[in-house]
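Hi U.,

Before I forget, here's the chain from the pilot set. I'm dumping it here mostly so it's searchable later in email.
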Amino acid sequence: MKVSPELLLETLLTRRGIGLDERERFLNPSYERDVLDPFLFSHMRLSVERILSAVKQGEKIAIFGDYDADGVPGTALLASWFARIGYPVRIYIPNRHTEDYGLSERAIDELAGEGISLLITVDCGISNVLPVEQAHKQGMDVIITDHHIPPEILPSAYAILNPKCLGEEYPFKELAGAGVAFKLVQALVSTGEYSIPVGWEKWLLDLVAIATVSDMVPLSGENRALTHFGLSVLRQTRRLGLIALLAELRLDPAHVTEDDIGYLIGPRINSASRMSHAMHAFNLLMSDNLPEAQTLAHELESQNRERKEITEVIMDNAHSLLDEEDLPPVIVIGNPAWSLGVLGLTASRLVEAYHRPAFVWGVNEEGLRKGSCRSDGSVNMVELMHIAGEDGLFVNFGGHKEAGGFIVQKGREEELAPLLAKAYVALRTEPTNTLGAEVDYQLSLSDVTYDIYRVLSRLAPFGMGNEKPIFLFEGVEVASVRMFGQSNAHLELLVKSSVTGSERPVPAVGFFAKRTVPHAHSLKENDWIDIIAHVERSMFRSRPQLRLRIVDVSRVA
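Structure:
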């Protein structure tokens, strides 16, 4: 008996704790209702007045953005407002390989030497007390737009827009860095200056969606609305760089999803800073010349292929160094030869493979251990580093709950693993997202229909805080098995019903199943299995197909 779509929707909403009074807002986002007034930020009016004054006075303005797939789109959307009013600004995005994360004294000196009198940060700055003080001494006002967890002592900036600051009145605390930058642009447009049409800022929501999904902030509250409408804009984007990138990836713009952002678009933007410089991605997003945009998109794709190859080499090296029978509670691993640009990716892959927090380091130009870390959902990474570093273990560290970066004091690298393990024991909670996550509902293969898919689509976009529903399919027969991809890392099954066997086989795909799905390599035709999976629509080569995305597989005894 097939499941009722109405019953399935009711069950999934209930399991997510979405009560009757919340369902209209959740299922039918509204820009006017759900996107909040930017002037709820305590320093928003001060920030807007300072920027408008600087433009009217002809001051030199710089935007200082982070180099990742949150900071680069955020920098581009703020730069788009200045481009719209025809005002030139200096863009500064640090080099991931030779500069520290965030503002630095080196950058401040360079910008001060160019006569910059107003500096606006995007997705960084909240922890950079000394550089902001230096900017102030050199006659430069700094407006910080950031979303990272603030330190106890805030920088002495002209204004700070960060929803996580103590005492900040903005009601939604989980905006991405680009989300905060968007609020600033939203406020600037609302002033009515420069004859910008009402609602013009909505065309920037494609960048907000890319950043929000890529930075893995919770897709709830205002983020859900921003991403929902951002995906709508992305599907009809006017941005030539995104048009070129989607064409390079062979993605039909009309069917782009949050998965495409997370697995394809975001990694290409990130590949610029990992393999060369983030300005390549920024220039792509800001390009107004299609041939130039196509060249930049092709270069990003080439860099991403190179990034994948390097990451695979490092992952093989990392697996050889770890004893799966005796893993510590926190994985800490590194090598002076490892590229700094792919350490975050490596940490994420280690979390997927071993289901525990991971810290991965390389060596920077100063000979210090510099790295990235990712959480498995059981611990806040900033709190973990704060406790582990109470006696000065780190030169600096920062980030948010799920991810962060760090530099270890010279000569203290051997203390990193034991101090993190000790801090982890004090902080650990149950992971919120594990391979064995509780199943939402049991389906049969005959339920894999577009009626069911339309129900699931109403719950999208999916991400942190709104995970994809997980379904159990019991007693299905394997019709075929194929491993594919680099090093045969991915698994594709065709499965059919054990009840009648008359239905057309349903495809089931497990990416990186070589590491994450037990027995993936030993599965064979005619095996009987239970599958835990998501139901999704693939648009590979523009051909729609419903399939299962494998979470776990077990043989039926």
